[in-house]
Amino acid sequence: MQFKYAVCFIAIIAALLIFMNIYPVASFRDAAFEAKHASTLNQAAVVASSLSSLPELREEDVGKIMSMLNNIMVTRLVVTNERAQIIYDTSQYENNVGRYAVFAEVMTALEGKDVFRSKYTGEGLVSRAAMPVTSEGVIVGAVYIYDFDIDQAGMLETMRGNLLKVSFVILFLSLLLVFVFSWLLTKRIRSLFKAMQNLGGGRYDYRVEVRGGDEISGLASEFNSLAERLEKTESMRQRFVSDASHELKTPLASIRLLADSVVQNENVDAGTMREFMADIGSEAERLQRTTEKLLALSRLDDDIQIVPEPVDVRQVTLDALSVLRPLAEERSVSIRTALDDGCVVLATVDDMFHIVFNLMENAIKYNVPNGSVGVFLHIGGDSVLFTVEDTGIGIPESETYNIFSRFYRIDKARSREAGGSGLGLSIVHDAVKAHGGSIAVGQNKPQGSRFIVSFPLYSIERT
Ligand SMILES: Nc1ncnc2c1ncn2[C@@H]1O[C@H](COP(=O)(O)OP(=O)(O)OP(=O)(O)O)[C@@H](O)[C@H]1O
Ligand SMILES: [Mg+2]
After folding, report:
1. 278 alpha carbon to ligand 2 midpoint, in Å?
2. Is any atom of ligand 1 closer than 6 Å to the C-beta of 411?
3. What is the pLDDT of residues 297-354, one digit of tens each?
4. Probe ligand 1: pick from 293, 372, 403, max atoms within 8 Å of CB?
């Protein structure tokens, strides 16, 4: 990635530098050519018009006129007659008078056209211009100018050299910057990558450092919160597994102990034997209850789409009450009910049964002898409210959050004695949430506790 970034940046910078080296030099050269074009043709025109008074170009007449024109500043000036024969030449190297000027420009000028050509050779700016000399409408010869300009070329070369030097400096600096920036950018991506590898390898406590407020920092903080959630889930999972195995281990150990004592004592009387067997039976029953609750919880955890149906909560409450009546009688707890009709919610009968059964069972189990339990069901606005209150031992305010955790029991000894596994309320909680309801717990005056479950009321118009 760093390499790709660097290549991209360098390509852009190189393109800019190439443009910077070519464009100003080219436009300066064009401007210089433009100026040359005007000045050489101008000078040729001065000579041509001076010579146009002569009906025929002869060496001595042209020489005389030319000696009067002393402000012509070109490298070489040639005048030919109409047959392209040189009559006047300022060349310093040889005397060409009488020879034929075989320049393409002269030929074109003798055809009656002005010509200008220029090129840049690297050492100088070469310009060639030619123009016909006309006398009374007849072409009598041509003026040819050759100019070799070193000054302009020198300026052009200096400019080119300076630009090149500046370009190299810019290129070097930007290479350095590109390397540093792309390294810094990919460094943060690398650290995120490393963090992901760590997380993937099971190091849930690994976090990345969040700096700045750009997209990568956003990614990093998103990663951190993901890792945090995973860490929490993972620790919950571990605690759950250890709690569950502990819960299953205890009754199993009792069963083994009881079975061992039966096996090892040869002369156990029938009464004791029956007592031991009854104990084994009740431990096994406890195991069964715990595993059933664990199964109910894992079903609620699953994301399998359950299909909810309209459930009459009153009917479910009556069913659960008939199961719980013997327990209430055994504990001398009286139950008062006030159940309205028409309390229909969208849920499943099984989940609704778990909810009302566990709440009422707790209200009976954690009660005092001759205590009472109140079960109320009514509609409040758009909600169905199911309330269970008791006159029992109550729940301290500091515990109201914990009681919904798996395997949590406030008074372990009492709950175990009552056959509790600490899973009831977590099942209630998960079932309520699964069907869009809410649950609240509070104190019942003057003593005891009160649980209120609220569900959206199901009505045909609403669906
Ligand atoms: N109505 C209540 N009054 C007083 N304490 C309660 C009441 N309901 C629950 N608790 C406390 O909250 C704890 C958790 O309740 P929960 O129903 O989850 O478990 P449990 O009753 O111990 O076992 P299980 O319901 O699985 O048989 C109980 O152990 C008890 O200490
Ligand atoms: Mg319970």
Report:
1. 23
2. yes
3. 888 877 666 788 999 999 999 999 999 999 999 999 999 999 999 999 999 999 999 9
4. 403
Q: How far apart are CA 32 and CA 163, in angstroms?
A: 18
Question: Can you point out the beta strands (E) in 412-460?
Answer: 438-443, 449-456
Q: How far does residue 362's CA lie from ligand 1's centre (Å)?
A: 5
Q: Is 358 in the pocket of ligand 1 (CB under 6 A)?
A: yes
What is the signed CA dihedral for 85, 90, 91, 95, rounded to 10 degrees?
50
Q: CA end-to-end span of the chain, whole Å?
A: 53
Query: How are strands ordered across the β-sheet holding 334-339?
Result: 334-339, 372-380, 383-390, 449-456, 438-443
Dihedral angle computed from the Cα positions of residues 336, 341, 344 and 347, in that order, rounded to the nearest 10 degrees:
30
User: In this structure, how many other beta carbons lie within 10 angstroms of the beta carbon of residue 287?
Assistant: 18
Q: For residue 377, which amino acid is it?
A: L
CB 195 within 8 A of CB 206: yes
Q: Ligand 1: which residue has its CA nearest to atom 19?
A: 422
Residue 68: what pLDDT?
A: 85
Pocket test of ligand 1: the residue of 367, 415, 417, 426 to mutate, having most ligand atoms within 8 Å of its CB, is 415
State the pLDDT at residue 225: 94
Does the predicted TM-score (pTM) go above 0.85? no
- Interval 376-404: pLDDT, tens: 999 999 999 999 999 999 999 999 999 99
pLDDT value of position 326: 94
Of 401, 416, 324, 322, nearest to 363 (Cα)? 324
Cα–Cα nearest to 157, from 124, 131, 190: 124
Of 199, 247, 274, which Cα lies nearest the Cα of 422? Answer: 247
What tokens does 196 get?
A: 């992901």
Mean pLDDT of 407-418: 76
Cα 423 to middle of ligand 1, angstroms: 8
- The CA-based angle 129-132-137, given to 5 degrees, is 160
Pairing of strands 438-443, 449-456: antiparallel
Residue located via tokens 């002898």: 369
Helix axes 270-301, 215-264, angle to 10 degrees: 170
